[in-house]
Design goal:
heterodimer, A: alpha/beta, Rossmann fold, Dimethylsulfoxide Reductase, domain 2, 5 domains, seven-stranded mixed beta sheet, six-stranded mixed beta sheet, 34 strands, B: alpha+beta, four-stranded mixed beta sheet, two-stranded antiparallel ribbon, 19% strand
Chain lengths: 1004, 256
């Protein structure tokens, strides 16, 4: 008898005994037990709990991690978290599998196959972290060896020409993003980008130029206060927990309107659903503004327009005019009225394909006072277009007209994609910003002016020039030249109001960076700023935005790319070009990741990162809540926490560079000028003479090396240095006061650590601000521009863009801008919104209708040519979308079996009509072709009623839609949608137009 | 105390958090699935999939109206579970709080429960040759003090799944029934097998969601299944005797 037989017999025997027991029960009667347990339950009840924040979307849901030592027991929704109250979406529910995945990278590796490509095996060889740093540092050294630190007599690096580039990451904590930005800036490069460019770059431009801040105005929980939702996004899938609060509002009687090219899971809960053709958002919203102004003027919030917007002013900044509603006043309001006049329901239908009756139903519902306050949700569907800035501006203006701004339940709510994309944007991992949403010095002229400011006088100064100069590290000698304008009025007289405003915003930030980063910015010795040599350690000039960055790599201009937690081989428009760039011999690619991603396949060095529950740090959600993550367990293998990686990498690079004389420009200046010691003090702290003191943070030597120390540098309320309070002590002004050593001493003054869900007052209780929970920028304001919010710091609009000679809108900056001076370029043709400084509709670069393309010509950055197809060759509109079960470029979900099983393969959705026309059945393989990839990609056809043909300009136009999560690595592989999307970018934000292009679909 | 879960598909957004949370708490493997146009995936319940969301798209061409129904599906946890009554080895337990649980250690893989269940819930695994199904997270729920809601319920963002004392849930079901002008399935309007611990409130007839018509009483055929096991007694005794003799032989062999 073998073992199997034995087992069977044993089974039969035990069955026999059970039967006997059962016979007994028959006699005694059944009882129901009431206590149960399991190993999991036992571990769960005794395990240690650590709060964290979900790494997937930007909702900011709380996770509660249970561990037994380093054994992970459970990751569930944080039961007391105000946003999710224990609930999670499918992705967040799978974080457990993300952390425990045996597919994670666990040690550093180097490539041994010199050939790079999608199908090339990198032939990884395991190395140590020290070896990896050594190799990277030497590659950086090689790249920088001939990179000039001197331009004429001036000492500085040209940021854009720097051959070292940095990517990522929105999956990182704020402290890590900040250090990454610091690292690449100290190497003199502004070639730094990350996910934010591709998702909400247009939001920042549009909203900042309308309201003051380029962010979601309200917050996640605030949806519960809404009476009506106008959703041009898909929160049920892309920001699932937002829908928790939409659902709450529905239960309180709110109406939901969903507008989307295809019916989606959000649409399933809509009271009104309407389709529109991708790329026509501006026309839709301009049409809505027109409807309200012309058909329902009684619904306009006239008081709001008069008191809180630029409507009663003229475009020259004069006003307010009492007759601003009259044609003769030539007011901005009248200008808006004229701009929107052509967008009648007929015209909107002609452009967007939305039936007039449906369109009227939508805006009539949304504008109805019984449905106020109304809330607009949007995300990638609006932002990823060449005219996205205009479309978002139109949405913003609609909300101003209806008085839906600055109120709970209202607002224009940009739903941001990745867990910390708001924070990584705030950390300015972008090529045109240095920190605090301020640009780097653009030219030596600015630096000379800055030196004068440091020397005394100018914006934000006291009357005491010497005190100012001391604070700022300026020159206090008698013969110094100081800042030329004492006040804005003074600058206006000199015709320099523009510069004054610019300086007012930038100089304190550069000054804070001098102090926090141990760098020098100015002229030397600072007595005669107009004629002395400039010495600037901050990189000068803007770098390459994402699409151009890969072109620069293709041109051999970028030699080292350090890519962290970002997967451009899948996520960037026209990914073929990206993959070609990544394959270049001239590029040395470092990738830091959790998994071997599509981008990692091209890497020379591949480093193992850690998951978000394995480290401390803060993250900022889409509603601007800065929340803290606590480390719950150690990472596996040799995975290195990102702060450690950044610090060790920087030290090694600095050591190797110094050994061959590559240093900061100020150090080079000293080297070449015997006896010169650019030993500047700010307060009395020696900074520039010892930049090492400032890495990773000025706080390190008192607090040890930690996320907390870096956070203090980032969000300090104030620091007294040498008895003088610095003019701006926070490295990032938005986070100012979020570190306040006088508050919450048990949290070391780090306010994002607060976990108290109790309201501060009745108003908080009513609206669900949760002001005791974490911190919200700015100054803990929960609803931006809400002038009725208690205990808040920032209540007014803050459109500080004073570019008109007369200081735009007088000297008060508290009006929302219907007409936006920074988005004004009178040299453009009248069909270009920039000529109007107000939104207009413009067709996508690939338009399916030639009449519309002529009438509404595309506004795009044609300095960067792209391959464009015609509607004859490519007759169908293609858009992309996201699924609840997958995340962005897919590495964090396509490696998890629990999520892969739900959506195992790439597909394209099409209408039954189109499928009929091209002879395709549901489930068939089809080829989707565009001008970028005429051979196309092969995917499954999903023939569905979710998509219906449009009638555009009287003709039938088909649209197809595909998710963009797939790539060639992971448990579930498939072609990437971005292999065929278009890489045209908009003029204001450089965002790629991945949401709309033309395609052809055929049976494979 | 008896507990229940209200399933409210009208509030469900089909995010599948329940599906994943279930796998996490119960340590179930992800399955190897293929493209499913309907999106229901895994397409069927299995030994590794205790619960899933069924997707159902309806389109009214004339009105251009789309309805997309999402429907959480798993064991109903009946008051008089047919599976339990059919199980010849008492591997299935009904807990006081509501859960109906298969003890896989006791299960002999006879599949009687599968034929008995009117909802098609218990699933046979060819690898382990055992049957398993949703446990209503009995290890969280079956406590006399402070039960913890099932993992699926905890994860649901929109309260499409709601856990509570049965009375409270029935009250809630009545309210929602009124709001939706609909049906309650599991109790009130329809009490399959004496009433279930998962109770649906629906905005249309249960058949639209594929819910079967199930009587309130346990069909007489079910106990017949259960007691058919007595036919096994001689085989069991025979097996026992054989085992004893086999063991004796082994001992003897060892001694030698």
């Amino acid at each position: 008898m073998d073992r199997r037989d034995f087992l069977k017999l044993a089974g039969a025997a035990s069955a026999g005994s059970l039967i006997l027991g059962d016979m007994l029960k028959l006699v005694k009667g059944q009882t129901k037990p009431s206590e149960a347990t399991s190993q999991k339950w036992e571990n769960y009840t005794v395990g240690e709990r650590t709060p964290s924040i979900c790494p997937y979307c930007a909702g900011g849901c709380g996770l509660m991690v249970t561990t037994l030592g380093d054994q992970l027991v459970e990751i569930e929704g944080d039961p007391i978290h105000p946003i999710n109250g224990g609930a999670l979406c499918s992705k967040a529910a799978a974080v457990f599998q993300l952390v425990t995945s045996d597919r994670r990278l666990t040690y550093p590796m180097k490539r041994t196959n010199p050939n790079k490509g999608k199908d090339e095996d990198p032939m990884w060889e395991r190395i140590t972290w020290e070896e990896a740093y050594e190799i990277i540092a030497n590659k950086v050294k090689d790249a920088l060896t001939d990179f000039p630190y001197k331009q004429g007599d001036d000492y500085y690096y040209k940021g854009k020409d720097n051959p070292v580039a940095w990517l990522g990451s929105s999956y990182w904590n704020n402290e890590e993003c900040y250090l990454g930005k610091k690292l690449i800036s100290l190497l003199g490069s502004t070639n730094v980008e990350h996910q934010a460019r591709k998702c909400h770059a247009s939001t920042v431009v549009a909203l900042a130029n309308t309201f003051g801040f380029g962010a979601m105005t309200n917050h996640i929980v605030d949806a519960k206060n809404s009476k009506c939702f106008l959703i041009v996004s898909n929160p049920a899938e892309s920001h699932t927990m937002e829908f928790k609060w939409v659902q709450k509002a529905i239960e309180n009687g709110a109406k939901v309107i969903v507008l989307d090219p295809r019916f989606n899971r959000s649409g399933s809960k809509a009271h009104i659903f309407a389709r529109f053709r991708s790329g026509t958002e501006a026309a839709l919203f301009l049409g809505m503004i027109r409807y309200v102004l012309y058909e329902k003027p009684e619904r306009v919030d006239w008081d709001f327009l008069e008191n809180r917007t630029s409507a009663p002013y003229r475009t020259d900044g004069t006003g307010p005019y009492s007759d601003w509603k009259e044609e003769a006043s030539d007011s901005i309001f009248i200008k808006l009225k004229n701009i929107v006049a052509p967008y009648t329901p007929e015209e909107v239908e002609r452009i967007a394909g939305i039936p007039q009756a449906k369109f009227i139903e939508v805006i009539d519902t949304f504008s109805d006072p019984v449905n106020n306050p109304g809330n607009i949700y949007y995300s990638m569907g609006t932002t990823q277009h060449t005219n996205a800035v205009q479309a978002i501006r139109a949405q913003a203006i609609l909300q101003l007209i209806l008085g839906n701004m600055g109120v709970p339940g209202g607002g224009i709510n940009a739903l941001r994609g990745i867990s910390n994309v708001q924070g990584s944007t705030d950390a300015n991992l972008l090529s045109h910003l240095i920190m605090g949403y301020r640009g780097p010095p653009r030219d030596v002229g600015e630096i000379r002016r800055y030196q004068k400011w440091k020397n005394g006088g100018g914006p934000g100064t006291s009357a005491d020039l010497d005190a100012d100069a001391k604070k700022r590290g300026g020159n206090t000698s008698v013969g110094r030249v100081t800042y030329p304008w004492a006040s804005i009025g003074d600058a206006e007289t000199a015709g320099k109001a523009t510069e004054f405003r610019y300086d007012d915003r930038h100089f304190p930030t550069w000054n804070a960076l001098e102090y926090h980063w141990g760098v020098y910015v100015g002229t030397w010795p600072g007595v005669d700023p107009d004629n002395e040599p400039v010495v600037c350690d901050l990189p000068v000039g803007f770098g390459n935005p994402i699409v151009q960055l890969f072109r620069a790599i293709n041109d051999g201009k970028i030699k080292v790319l350090i890519c962290n937690g970002e997967n451009p081989a899948v996520s960037v428009a026209n990914a073929n070009l990206v993959r070609e760039a990544l394959s270049k011999d001239s590029l040395f690619l470092v990738v830091n990741e959790l998994f071997e991603t599509e981008t990692a396949v091209y890497a020379d060095i591949l480093l193992p990162g850690t998951t978000q529950v394995e480290r401390d740090g803060s993250i900022t959600n889409t509603g601007r809540w800065i929340q803290w993550r606590w480390k719950a367990k150690n990472p596996p293998g040799e995975c290195k926490p990102e702060l450690t990686y950044l610090t060790e990498l920087y030290w090694k690079i600095r050591e190797v560079l110094k050994s061959v004389g590559i240093k900061l420009p100020s150090e080079k200046y000293e080297e070449e000028h015997a006896g010169v010691d650019i030993k500047k003090t700010i307060g009395t702290a020696d900074v520039q003479n010892n930049p090492e003191l400032c890495w990773p943070s000025r706080f390190v030597y008192t607090d040890g090396f930690s996320a907390e120390a870096i956070y203090k540098e980032y969000g300090a309320k104030s620091i007294i240095v040498g008895g003088v309070e610095l003019p701006q002590s926070a490295a990032n002004v938005l986070y100012k006061n979020s570190y306040d050593p006088t508050m919450e001493p048990e949290l070391n003054g780090i306010l994002p650590k607060r976990r108290d869900p109790t309201p501060v007052d009745l108003e908080d209780a009513k609206y669900g601000y949760f002001k005791n929970w974490a911190f919200s920028w700015m100054l803990n304001q929960r609803v931006l521009y809400n002038d009725k919010e208690s205990n808040a710091g920032l209540k007014t609009f803050l459109v500080w863009f004073a570019t008109a000679p007369n200081a735009w809108l007088g000297h008060t900056l508290d009006k929302a801008a219907l007409w936006s001076k920074p988005l004004h370029d009178p040299s453009k043709p009248a069909t270009n919104p920039l000529s109007q400084a107000m939104p207009l509709h413009n067709e996508p670069l690939e338009s399916p209708d030639s009449d519309l393309a002529t009438q509404y010509p595309t506004m795009w950055d044609n300095r960067y040519p792209v391959t464009v197809g015609t509607s004859t060759d490519y007759p169908y509109v293609l858009t992309t979308f996201r699924l609840a079960e997958h995340m962005q470029a897919g590495a964090m979900t396509r490696n998890l079996p629990w999520l892969v099983e739900a959506h195992p393969s790439m597909f394209v959705e099409m209408s039954k009509e189109l499928a009929g026309e091209i002879g395709v059945n549901d489930g068939d393989d089809v080829v989707v072709k565009t001008a970028r990839k005429p051979e196309g990609i092969v995917v499954k056809a999903l023939v569905t009623d979710r998509i219906q043909p449009f009638t555009i300009n009287g003709k039938t136009v088909h649209e197809v839609a595909m998710p963009w999560h797939w790539g060639f690595k992971g448990l579930s592989t498939g072609p990437s949608a971005n292999e065929i999307t278009i890489d045209s970018v908009d003029v204001s934000a450089n965002i790629p137009e991945v949401k709309v292009c033309l395609c052809k679909v055929e049976k494979a | 105390m008896e507990y229940a879960v209200l399933v409210d598909p009208a509030k469900c957004i089909g995010c599948r958090a329940c599906q994943v949370a279930c796998k996490r708490w119960n340590n179930r493997k992800g399955e190897s699935t293929t493209f499913n146009s309907e999106w229901t995936n895994p397409p069927k319940l299995s030994f590794n999939t205790y619960t899933h969301i069924k997707f159902k798209l309806e389109y009214n061409q004339a009105a251009d109206e789309t309805k997309w129904r999402f429907f959480n599906w798993r064991c109903m946890h009946c008051k008089e579970p047919a599976c339990m009554h059919a199980c010849p080895v008492n591997a299935i337990t009904k807990y006081e709080q509501g859960p109906v649980v298969v003890d896989t250690n006791r299960c002999i893989g006879c599949k009687f429960c599968i034929s008995a269940c009117p909802f098609g819930i218990p699933q046979f695994d060819t690898v382990t040759e055992k049957v398993d199904k949703c446990t209503m997270c009995y290890d969280r729920v079956a406590h006399t003090n402070e039960p913890k809601e099932p993992a699926c319920v905890q994860s649901c963002p929109t309260d499409a799944l709601l856990f509570g004392p049965r009375d409270t849930i029935l009250q809630k079901a009545m309210e929602r029934k009124e709001e939706l002008n609909g049906y309650v399935y599991g109790d009130i309007d329809n009490k399959p097998l004496g009433g279930t611990s998962f109770i649906y409130v629906l905005d249309t007839e249960p058949s639209a969601f594929g819910l079967p018509v199930v009587g309130e009483q346990l069909p007489t055929s079910v106990p017949v299944l259960k007691y058919s096991k007595f036919l096994l007694i001689p085989a069991a005794i025979g097996g026992l005797l054989y085992l004893i003799s086999w063991r004796k032989r082994r001992m003897k062999e060892k001694e030698e």
